[in-house]
Amino acid sequence: MVPLGTLQLTDLEQKASRAIVTRAYQEISPGSYLMPYRDDKRREVALKMPSRDLKGYIVESYSGTEIIAAGDIVYIDLGSAQGAEAGNMLYIVRDVTLDRQYVEGRIDRLPQELLGALVVLETGKKTATALVVKSIDAIYKGDKIVSLTK
Question: For the whole model, what pTM was predicted?
Fold first, then answer.
């Protein structure tokens, strides 16, 4: 979910209500989802090891930009149902494809390329919000996240 703005309810009815948009971060169109408001004050998140191996993907960036780097907020496809918790540090990796024209012999797989690290800030049931704390190379939507590197 990418926050589009905030609104204040002015008139509550049984099946429909009225509201005033109090802040807009991006264009808000009919059909956008509503969530309860949370005050986004700074808070500390203590680092903790994941309780089990986690594997997932970056599905979106908060800003919607194509290239993601350290300091960016991202959304991942791991949540509390998969064992993710606030404070989990995960590695961002990408599979390296083998260019056969430069290789002789049999090579099955190359090690994954380490791109950076992120820390889970908040989890939902199947998704989580995370902060990219380190980026060694450009990170994109669709890059893998793992709790352990191979």
Answer: 0.71
